[in-house]
């Protein structure tokens, strides 16, 4: 797969798994992609969550996307960077898939929405693809 195909797979399968490490113990959870392109793999969480605390201490992560229809898995390892731009956070809230964020922002569910909504991007990651046909072949890294 090339970069464009990887980004398309991510966009078509926006639920992904994020692995972090805390105190030398791995933690993995499902996340919801905002977007993935040449500017990075972008998602969000809340500052009150364990995931935010783990990323704050160690921003080395791995994400895993699966296309169950085609049997392709893509894993990307790299370092997360926080995006603090409130206009970008407003853009995320305006997206049709993020109605819940708009509600939280407008009804005050979060005491300080812009500081509690944490947006991250994974740039310059190293991707590895997997299929059952390539299961025993050496891995080839694709730079994103």
Protein model, in words:
Helix 3 packs across helix 4 (99-107). This protein has one domain (3-86, 117-143): Pnp Oxidase, Chain A. The chain is an alpha+beta fold and 144 residues long. The protein is built from five helices and nine strands; from the N terminus they run H-E-E-E-E-H-E-E-H-H-H-E-E-E. Strands 1, 2, 3, 4, 5, 6, 7, 8 and 9 form a nine-stranded antiparallel beta sheet that branches. Strand 3 (35-37) and strand 4 form a beta hairpin. It is 28% helix and 41% strand. The radius of gyration is 16 Å and the shape is globular.
Short description:
The chain is α+β, with helices and mostly antiparallel strands and 144 residues long. It has helices at residues 3-12, 50-57, 86-94, 99-107, 113-116; strands at 15-22, 25-32, 35-37, 40-46, 60-67, 72-83, 117-122, 126-130, 142-143. The chain has a single domain (3-86, 117-143), classed as Electron Transport, Fmn-binding Protein, Chain A (Pnp Oxidase, Chain A), CATH 2.30.110.
| CATH architecture assignment name | Roll
Reported for the largest beta sheet, the result is: 9 strands, antiparallel
The poorly predicted ranges are: none
The fraction of residues in strands falls at 35-45%
Structural class: alpha+beta
CATH level-1 class: Mainly Beta
Superfamily (CATH H level) name: Electron Transport, Fmn-binding Protein, Chain A
The span between the termini is 12 Å
Count of discrete alpha- or pi-helical segments spanning 4 or more residues: 5
Arithmetic mean pLDDT: 95
Number of DSSP-assigned strands: 9
Order of helices and strands: HEEEEHEEHHHEEE
What gyration radius follows from the Cα positions, in whole Å? 16 Å
- Global geometry: globular
